[in-house]
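Researcher: Quick test of sequence recovery. Tokens follow.
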């Protein structure tokens, strides 16, 4: 069995496509169960964030497994697979592992080195594990990826002074408004990104912050943290009439603010401009709102363009991170190979012992006249022959473990001695 990943992200798909495929937190458990019941997906982890939706699977048959994932994504997006195939990437075995390591380390993020993705990878794995969808193979892959991501951030400056999506959104708003001092803000949402927005606003000295969320208790909690005030969803339109900035980051599948809502708001503002930074995927604000006079609407694609200019310092650390990831990938490959070698060596020795015992059984009559000491000597002699015969091949196999040569040795040994091919990822 093999591990593959099929997905799309901010480099392969525009926000319009990403929002169609994205799986909100409220539907994540159902989606994981849906994937886990597909015929050719033995293990599943689903990672869906504002910038990527990726399905990691342990598969029984590669092409059938890819088809299962494509069908799932097509159903999620209400499209045919061919409608978005050009936006997808598929990685297999070592390529899939290397991709996940890059994701966990923040090298594949829109904001290189951002810290939120490591927690999102961990949460995706934990949810799949809790729902019984992840098993031994993906557990090992994700555990090692998280270790690699932590090491990258500890041993390099890739995460130093890193912009998260939250802080980047606030920085983009500050550049658009020229200053946040004395501005009033409405945050729509209360999840991790919205909380990060609240912290960034507080650090920027913004004191007039309102928070709205579908679950009002969470809005109350976030408002208390940032020294703001909670408002209910029905109050959002009224609040928008007085604020300078709207920041949105819900995990809803529906648009919260339609163009008509914004038009009504702007009529009541007497020409006062409004800046909207929509960090939700799917989007919280109707894209048509950006065409209303006086409204500046910025989304994740706008955020991507903005962050490109601030990436130079972090990109200098990319080479160091890549070196760490290469070490971690090699360590993972060695561990995986050793998990294959150990049961293969055991199977080889078991095959030798079976042959020895069978030959001794066939010679029972000829050995009948031997004393107990003589029988013991024959037994010891045959054991020694088998051990010495198998010593060199097993030693060479262990020494080459983790290399291409080692894989050739393992394949040859299994074929020459007709040994069962061990499933490296299910061994204890």
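Model:
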């Amino acid at each position: 069995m093999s591990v593959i990943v099929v997905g799309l992200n901010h480099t392969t798909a525009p926000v319009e496509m990403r929002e169609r495929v994205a799986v909100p937190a409220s539907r994540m458990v159902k989606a994981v169960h849906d994937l886990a019941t597909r015929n050719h997906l033995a293990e599943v982890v689903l990672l869906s964030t504002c910038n990527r939706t990726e399905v990691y699977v342990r598969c029984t048959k590669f092409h059938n497994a890819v088809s299962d994932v494509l069908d799932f994504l097509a159903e999620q997006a209400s499209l045919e697979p061919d409608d978005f195939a050009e936006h997808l990437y598929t990685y297999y075995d070592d390529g899939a592992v290397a991709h996940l390591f890059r994701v966990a380390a923040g090298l594949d993020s829109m904001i290189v080195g951002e810290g939120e993705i490591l927690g999102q990878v961990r949460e995706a794995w934990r949810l799949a594990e809790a729902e019984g969808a992840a098993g031994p193979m993906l557990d090992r892959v994700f555990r090692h990826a998280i270790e690699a991501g932590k090491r990258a951030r500890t041993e390099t400056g890739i995460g130093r002074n890193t912009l998260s999506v939250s802080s980047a959104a606030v920085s983009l708003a500050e550049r658009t408004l020229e200053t946040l001092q004395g501005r009033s803000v409405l945050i729509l949402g209360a999840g991790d990104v919205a909380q990060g927005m609240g912290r960034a606003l507080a650090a920027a000295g913004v004191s007039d912050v309102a928070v709205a969320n579908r679950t009002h208790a969470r809005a109350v909690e976030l408002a208390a943290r940032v020294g703001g005030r909670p408002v209910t969803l029905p109050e959002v339109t009224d609040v928008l009439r007085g604020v300078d900035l709207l920041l949105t980051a819900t995990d809803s599948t529906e648009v919260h603010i339609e163009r008509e809502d914004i038009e009504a708001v702007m009529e009541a503002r007497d020409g006062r401009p409004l800046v909207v930074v929509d960090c939700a995927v799917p989007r919280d604000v109707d894209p048509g709102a950006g065409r209303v006079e006086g409204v500046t609407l910025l989304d994740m694609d706008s955020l991507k363009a903005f962050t490109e200019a601030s990436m130079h310092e972090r990109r200098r650390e990319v080479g160091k991170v890549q070196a760490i990831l290469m070490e971690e990938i090699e360590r993972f490959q060695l561990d995986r190979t050793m998990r294959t070698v150990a049961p293969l060596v055991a199977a080889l020795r078991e095959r030798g012992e079976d042959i020895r015992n069978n030959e001794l059984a066939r010679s029972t009559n000829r050995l009948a006249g031997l004393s107990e000491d003589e029988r013991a000597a024959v037994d010891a002699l045959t054991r020694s022959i088998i051990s010495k015969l198998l010593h060199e091949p097993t030693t060479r196999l262990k020494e080459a473990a983790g290399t291409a040569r080692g894989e050739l040795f393992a394949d040859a040994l299994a074929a020459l001695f007709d040994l069962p091919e061990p499933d490296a990822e299910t061994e204890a």
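DSSP finds 17 helices and ten strands in the chain.
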